[in-house]
Amino acid sequence: MNRSISKVAFLAASLLAAGTVPGQANAAAPAINMLIGNATANDTQAAANDKFAELVTKYSNGRITASARHGESLGNNAQMLAALQAGSVHGMIYPAGFMSRAVPELALFDMPFLLPGAPAKITAFAAQSKFAAEMIKLAETKGIHIIGFHGIGPQSFLTKFPVNKLADIQGKKFRVIPSPPRVGAYQDWSAVARPMEFSEVYTALQQGNLDGMENPPDVIYKMKMHEVAKYYTITEHFAFASNVIVSKKWFDALPKDLQGVVTKAGKDTIAFADVAYTKSQADSLEAMRKAITVTNMPPAEIQKMRDLARKGVWARMKADPQKGPMVKILEEDVARFNKK
Q: Which of 147, 183, 226, 316 lies at a CB distance of 3.0 to 4.6 Å from 266, suitable for a disulfide?
């Protein structure tokens, strides 16, 4: 009896010294910090990052303390993505095309005239997309865990000059994200693509280093780009698919229940983003109509853009040994989605 009591006492003393008394481990554990990086500020993308942080903190009952940092305070998109792969930035919500630095095939979401324009339709397309499922697998091998994709909205031309026909943009310098299909499309249209970080665009437009850019109304209006370029021509030649991502290194180190928390928070953020972007795109376009000249490019001119892109960047991507099979999967995704 005494020997048993002594053993129990010794075990209890050891557990107390180690700070691991059963039932008290979770209570004593410090909160896990989660840094969510974002390049923009005061727009719907920033609001989505804030919502992700809010939901992670709420669903984990404070076991994870998440915060979103805006306006490139954690670095530009390339720097934040590298930090996420290393595990020092833990989450991001931003356009999929930017992730092509790490997963080149992901740039195919940027093929011209591929995605539907409405945010919720882009989300629905990605949810049934076999291409998207393949991208999730590929991203894992690069240290990136994709929780899901969602839509931002259609992109059109914001310029410092009126655009009534395709010929009007030829020879002009446009800021694009560093995505090969986008750069290739501008080459097909005889315009000049200038990959550039978003933080540099306002000044570049102001100083004449750029003639135009492309983005949905939400980004343009809320980031005040319409102050330095007064013509918005609706073409919807691209549409933005975004992704909710976390560091695989950080995610894999979490307890299983907290992995579930982060996943649920990410998926609920996608639902939030669909509603928020739908409203914001409509509201921002209406506000822009009151501030600058907003027009629609004639359908015949848009068809010229489509035809040139099909003969150009679409054909080149299909012929690429690595990207060609993925382009085929995307085309099958489109056919399946359009049947619904």
A: 147
